[in-house]
Amino acid sequence: MNTKRLIVLGFAGIMAIVAALLARGLMGGGTPNVQAKMAPQMPMSDVLVTNNALQPGQALAADLVHWQKWPTSSVDSTFITRGAAGSIDAVVKGAVVRTPLAAGQPVTNVAIVHADAVGMMAAMLNPGMRAISIPINTDSGAGGFILPNDRIDLILIRKGEANRISSTTLLTDVRVLAVDQTFKQDKDTKTVIAKTATLEVTPAQAEQVAKAQSQGMLSLSLRPLVSSDTVASNVPATGGSGGQDGGAPISVIRYGIARETSAIVQGGAKPQ
User: Fold this and answer.
1) 269 lies in some domain
2) Domain end: 94, 123, 152, which one?
3) Which residues constitute the domain of residue 89?
4) Which long-range contacts (CB under 8 A, 24 or more apart) does 117-125 make?
């Protein structure tokens, strides 16, 4: 066999191998198919967040918050999580908002305070207000029917010359924070016979109350829950040698209802 024939046979063999490889590639052979894999999921935790903006002193309720998925790596140690707290009811029971919370903001352990925690009373106060306690009894406390979150008028009763008794409405529409150490009204509670009442007042009113306690006896007058609380201007003044009725009307917003009311000052002007 001569050299030329060997070269031709060799070239033909190489071409046959190339043709076979091309045919295999066209028929799906060769490189295997690569399947895309899902990226691993980021660990998530259930974090308690607010539904709406909450203000200091506002009682926390189950309908004001909800659980929301949050990246576990971004969960702060102060966040309230489902894994640590268990249920929303367990978190909100006896809790009061301590610092302002925006809508959708995670609720933290430092943003709320529970009934058995230090600072509970401070959290219940509205900004700029003060808490002051006064002694009361069954007679001066409306027979025990004054309960936390009721609104009252504060009356100062003084004994003057010749044993004349005078009465003055010192403050009107004051919020009762607590009676004794009871600061919330249970659904079955109708009366609380207490020895002290804690009121929410302004700093100036706190000075008035502190001064008035040394001038006579303080009595609480329970205000109604009805939408209109205007006192008749022809109610006669009682006690002392005389008095004056009436007073400038003030606008009161209570439980979301606006109403006009007027304060009656009896037995002379307010003490200075």
Assistant:
1) no
2) 123
3) 44-123
4) 120/96, 120/183, 121/177, 121/178, 121/183, 121/198, 122/98, 123/56, 123/57, 123/96, 123/97, 123/98, 124/57, 124/96, 124/177, 124/183, 124/200, 125/56, 125/57, 125/177, 125/200
